[in-house]
Task: structure prediction
Amino acid sequence: MQSVESFNSIIKKSLNNASTLCDIEKAINKRHKEEVRYCKLTNIKALHTTIGLSHLSSQIFSNINRIIVEFLPPLILSMQRFQISQSFTYEGQLTSYLFEDLCSDIIEDNFIEDVVDEPQTKLKVLLNDMNTSKIVETWRIY
Result:
């Protein structure tokens, strides 16, 4: 359902900006390629995480592991350990300025859930009422 709404949004946007069906087809194909690429990346991360990284939560994060074992039920514990091991497959990039992150592009003509790689929240929202002068550096995680 969400994908259909996403494609409907692309069609509406293309109709407002384009005069031919070829332009609409290009927009839909571009979006489809982005979704396929995102799905492949997610599958690769899940595959590698389940094969070789499942033990990392207890080996590298032993202090955290002791705490979560004590407080989390088995299903949630399993999900948390999986998420910890997946964090090793993330790619981080040091951003040059905090200001760049605060002023990042916001998608206004789409639902945020429909955009494959759009963050679910913005740094500006998280730091809204905070003093940002003491922030030394920020990292963008992919």
